[in-house]
Amino acid sequence: MSDLNKITLGSFNTNYQPTWCPGCGDFGIWTALKMALVDLQIPTHQLAIVYGIGCGGNMASTIKCYAFHSLHGRTLPVALGIKLANKNLTVIAVAGDGDQYSEGTNHLIHLARYNANLTLIVCNNQLFSLTTGQTSPTSDEGIISKTTPKGEVKQPLDPLALSLISGATFVARGAAFEIQALKELIKKAILHQGFSHLDVLQQCVTFNKVNTIEWYKQKIYSLEQAGHKTDDFKMAVEKSREHTKLPLGIFYEVKQPTYEEEISNAPMAFDFKKALMEFI
Amino acid sequence: MDHLTIKIVGPAGFGIKVTGMMLAKHFLRSDCFVFAYTEYPSLIRGGHNTFQVDIAKKEINSAAEKCDILIALNKDSLIKELKNINTSGLIIYDEQIEIDFSLPNKINLLPSPLMEIAKNNGGELMKNTVALGILLGALNLSLENLNKILTETFGHKGAIAEQNKKAVQAGLEWIKNNPINSKIAAQYIMTVNNNKSFKQDNLFISGNQACALGAIAAGCQLYSAYPMTPASEILHYLVAKQQASGMVVHQPEDEIAAVHVALGASFTGSRAACGTSGGGFALMNEGLSLAGMLELPIVIFEVMRPAPATGLPTWTEQGDLMYVVHAGHGDFPRLVLAPGNPTECFLLTQQAFNLADKYQIPVIVLSDKFLGESTYTTSKKLFSKIEKKARGKILIVNQNQLAENQTLFARYKNEKDNVSPRPIPGVLNGEYIANSDEHDEFGLTNESTVCRNEQMKRRMGKTLNLKKEIPLPTLYGPKSANLTLVCWGSMLGPSLDALNEINKDKKQINLIHFSYVWPLPLGLDKFLKQFSKLILIENNFSAQLGILIRQETGTEIKDKILKYDGRPLWKEEIIKTVKK
């Protein structure tokens, strides 16, 4: 490939400026994603990104590719349809925590079990933000929000534990403010042949005054440095349920046949004459 | 006799459908026209199940209200069906059933040792097959031809075919050795072709099977459906044929996923469809609206059953017309097709894909349990009509570079016909945003007045072109008549049979049938004015097509024949009302 055709950060430019609040974690995720796409040299016309609805979903107008800005919670079935129609495309779903872990939970469980070769990136700020700050399934107990003035009483969901026990073949967590590390995780998730679930911790500077960057920084640690083995399913589940400290990195990775390989049929010329004989 | 109706009834799990289908095929291969209609409750074992086979020498499009011969496999079923037998009908039943209830006067009884013969020939489950043998003997039908059908039906199960053949033979011998009973049965004999060879001009096919074949003919590449009666047979057929057709058939986690998977595939350039009944369609609503916003072609089969809610899950109704016409939030164009018989299911399904592609809109093929699960005799010739696949403005190669300062393809730009070119992923310089937010011509989010008005006008402008393109309803019978029946979708069958019956001696009535139910075609008001008296026939409570016709043309059809008890309208009911 000549330098002229080289894919750069500029290749993804749409002339549309992001609409996020200054300091939003989505800037970090957006940057890391584009850097990963550059590193992997994925051409924009061979790339399909499906977005959900929420602040994360508003990334849709800002990365040049075949973009599909779907409905709240529905990124994964759309992404699956794209993959089933053309398995040569790189297919990524970008959703929010309210989006994917509330309205779209059913799809998450089942996509994990189908194992189509897709990458799911969840911008997890533990809050509904585009609707101006209500609790989400990943909000911590006790958090005060517009819908929980006395503090959240529901237990938070462990999304990575959920996808692990549902059969996801690549499960990881990154952070929006650790851009280099996040870029590497996104690359690994894209390169993984199968369903990859990447949860990304992110700050919401406007509505979430508890889970700030400083808060996260005191809790996070690297799984790799802690000597975690990514083929240890039992340990992965245990780590995915940790709350006092928040592990980052790859929790689990395993190779399994992909859904699109198993379901697709070689196109054949259908013999109508023969088929009609069954009805005589 | 030139019309014979045979009904097999009994609990689920006794092979009633299989027996009925074999009987129906036997008559088809005797050069008769056959119509098969089945009723069953929503359970797997027990209950009251019926399979009715109507046989005629000429075209037949619906089931008769009452039968001539009833084969009852147990006492409960026999009692339940007494009201559905013609005055001088015949009941074939097990001799152990005690007739301790009153019977209509002229009914003929043929008690027979069904159970005893079955037990000596493979067990109780063979009762239905023994009855088939008795019927064969009583009606002088060819054993050789039936044995061939038995081999085709059970061939893959080896010994079972042989066991069934033995049971048929035993039933046949019993009636042949029983002259009194033979004589009673003889009055129901219909002269048919008992030769080995027969005309192979007709198919015996259900609406669901025809829709599935239509999807294959249209080159549908992805079908995504969650199981739901009475639409599941489309899924079953497409799964069974997926190796040969190359279609990807996906059973998703719910109907919300079903429609979104199909939309993802459509975005990527595949012809995609999904199928369900009313309840599942309810879950697809947001996806329908999304198809409207993204202008993605998609075909949705909605095989109706009586609602609200779970309703009567295994019965029939045309109660979802208003719903599918209005489903999905917001204003967006759509097309609703309602085939009247399996031939139309096959042809209109292909049309559905072509029009979805041409206008880049969702198209709903609206069928129901009566059409979907009844089996019709239909001309094979019409099934060789494969329409040319017209994919509209899909762009699979883009020769043009993007203009300077332009980063995306103008996917939603204004065009004369309101339909813009649609590149698919993989096409160089075709990148755009399929955006559920209101968007500009590139798909970029844009909330301005100018952009909103422009995009709305363009999208909604497709409806007028559609109204111009779709045909006026089909006229059956004489051009002018004192009275005109008006129906849509599956009610074509009983209406047409009623028309043929009434017009047998004197041409008195005609019939107009809508298979394009939304939008209604341009010029419909003028078309309707040429008929002096209209009677609306609908299988629902509110006369839903009548409401749409009045809304769109101002014509109110005051006379109506409506039915909403889960059963289709019988031609007899239409004839009775019309004659009044």
Describe this structure in words.
The complex is a heterodimer of chains A (280) and B (580). Chain A is 32% helix and 18% strand. Chain A contains ten helices and ten strands. Chain A has an eight-stranded mixed sheet with strand order 2-1-3-4-8-7-10-9, with helices on both faces. A two-stranded antiparallel ribbon of chain A has the order 5-6. In chain A, helix 1 (25-39) crosses helix 6 and helix 5 (159-166) packs antiparallel against helix 8 (233-240). Chain A is globular. Chain A starts with 24 loop residues before the first helix and ends with a helix. Chain B is built from 21 helices and 23 strands. In chain B, strand 12 (335-337), helix 14 (342-359) and strand 13 form a beta-alpha-beta unit. Chain B has a seven-stranded mixed sheet with strand order 9-8-10-11-13-12-21, with helices on both faces. Chain B folds into four domains: 3-200, Pyruvate-ferredoxin Oxidoreductase, domain 3 (3-Layer(aba) Sandwich); 204-384, 3-Layer(aba) Sandwich (Rossmann fold); 393-469, no CATH class; 471-579, Rossmann fold (3-Layer(aba) Sandwich), CATH 3.40.50.920. Chain B is an alpha/beta fold. Classes of the chains: A alpha/beta (280), B alpha/beta (580). At the A-B interface, strand 1, strand 2, helix 2, helix 4 and helix 10 of A face strand 7, helix 8, helix 10, strand 9 and helix 11 of B.
